[in-house]
Each structure stands twice: as structure tokens, then as C-alpha cells.
Amino acid sequence: MIEDSLGKYLYYANLELVRCCIFFGGLIFFLLLELIISDRKDSIPKPSRWITNMGLTIFNCVMIKLVFAVLIINCAIYVTEKNLGLFNMVHIPYWLKLFATVIFMDFMYYVMHMLNHQIPLMWRFHRIHHSDLDMDVSTATRYHTGEMIIATIVKIGFVFFIGADLVGLVLSESILIITEQFHHSNIRIPLLFEKVYGVLFVPPSMHRIHHSVENEERNSNYGTTFSFWDKFFGTFLTNVDQERIWIGVNGHLQIKKLRMHGLLKMPLLPITK
Ligand SMILES: [Zn+2]
Question: Among residues 34, 251, 265, 10, which one has the least CA distance to residue 134?
């Protein structure tokens, strides 16, 4: 029995290790590409933003992993053992269940992202992500701890709803990590690749519009991995001159107020247009 549980947890620890390797591997891979074939000129020096963004990432990892990692793992185990959730009510092949988990989880991220923009309380937290004055791979993990906690609670609810197992959860999160790192990256990409990739997925140019200071542009392109949610729900926007996009949030454009302690306090500040 004890050996059984130990074996199970070692298996889950390995899955977690895979996710960590994907995160750091992607971070280094896209950073190297940004250094070799960068697209836009940085408006402020990279190191000053990276210290803040990586500091926030490490802070969140410690806070979230300590509190929620065991909880979410146990939820996925519980759901699988008790056969709970939508996908466990129907007999479908395992590969189809994994595929459906990836699609459904991405839809959940789309809805959550839209709510982050539409509900003022949620925007108070989400604007920390948007307050980065340049967009690169480090922006992909620049989130306020409060937003991470809300997202994790919603994710747990969704695991119960669809009946995701741990492999499905790790698979969907690994795809999310890589696609999110890619669409935040500041790398020069052939137009043809962007067009072909953009048929199904979110390319950097599409997500750059979402990081614009202009409200109308910011309230579009909520997709994370797949671009079809935006196309289907009418939030898709591409006809924007990429050269004139100004990245950031109005009212939060001074770099000296965007250090880590400033970002952690930002939800308490009034909302600006
Ligand atoms: Zn956003």
C-alpha cells in the first residue's frame, strides 16, 4: 500500500519535473531566439524588466506551489479514482480524452482571460501582466500572485467539471506554457509562418495587439493557445499597424513604479482608462 502510494507520487513528481523542464527549456530557447533575431527594439533595457519579471515568477512559484500544487494533484487523482466529471461519464478512447482536455482547458483560459478584462476587480490584478512596457518571453509569467490564486481555484473547479486526469492536466499546461512563451516572444518571424500558424494558433503579432495601451485593441485577442475562440466569439482583431502599437497600461507607464514591490501593490491603485 505504502509502496503503491510512493510509486504514484514518484510518477506525479516526474510529470511535474517534465513541466518544469518545458518551462525553463522554453524560457532559454525563446530568450536565445530573441537575442539572435529580435523583432522590436526594446524601449527600456531588458535586464531591468527581467529582474522584475523573474522575481515575480519565482515569488509566485514558491507561493502557489507550496499552497496549491499538492491540492490540485490530489484533485486530479480523486477525480480519476472516483470517475467524476464530463469525460468520465462517456466511454471515449484515452487519446480522445487527452485531446478534449487540452481543448476544454484552453477554452477555460479564454473565458478566464476575457473576465480578467471585463470584471474591474479581476482587471486590478491582471493589469500587472499588461503593465510590462515591452513584450518578450519573460512577460509570459509576469502575473500577480492574486491572479494566480484565482486562476488555480477556477482550474481545480474545471478539473472536477471535465474530469481531467493528471496526464491531461500536465499535457494541457505544458502546451499552454510553450504557446504562451512563444506568443509573448519578441522574435522576427516569417510572415508566411505567422499566417499559417495563425489559422489555428495565436501568433506573437496577434497577442501584441492585446498588449496595446488602446482599450479597443486590449479588449480583443484573448486566446492563449488556439486562435479560433476569438474568431468564433467575435473578439478577433488583426487589422492593426504593428509598428505603432504602444505596449503597456495608461497610468502605469513609469518604469520606476513598475518594480516588483510596486507591482504587488498595484491592485490597490485606482483603475485608469
Ligand atoms: Zn490580458
Answer: 34
Ligand 1 centroid vs 78 CA: distance in angstroms? 32
Q: How far is the CA of 137 from the centre of ligand 1 (A)?
A: 15
The C-alpha cell at 78 is 480523486
pLDDT digits (tens, 9 = 90+) for 149-164: 898 889 889 989 998 8
pTM over 0.90: no
DSSP at 220: S
- Is 97's pLDDT higher than 70? yes
Band (pLDDT 50/70/90 cuts) for residue 228 is very high
Domain parsing of the chain, residue ranges: 2-268
Distance 209 CA to ligand 1 centre (A): 10
On whether the CB atoms of residues 150 and 60 are closer than 8 A, the answer is no
Over the stretch 111-120, which tens digit does the pLDDT of each residue have? 999 999 999 9
Amino acid letter, 9:
Y
What is the C-alpha to C-alpha distance for residues 87 and 65, in angstroms, rounded to an integer? Answer: 27
CA 202 to ligand 1 centroid distance, Å: 13
Q: What share of the chain in percent tops pLDDT 90?
A: 56
Please tell me the number of Cα atoms within 13 Å of 166 on its side-chain side. Answer: 22
- Residues facing 187 on adjacent strands: 38
Q: In whole angstroms, what is the distance from residue 151 CA to residue 147 CA?
A: 6
If you measure from the C-alpha of residue 127 to the centroid of ligand 1, how many angstroms do you get, rounded to a whole number? 7
Angstrom distance (rounded) from CA 102 to CA 173: 8
DSSP helix/strand/coil, 273: coil
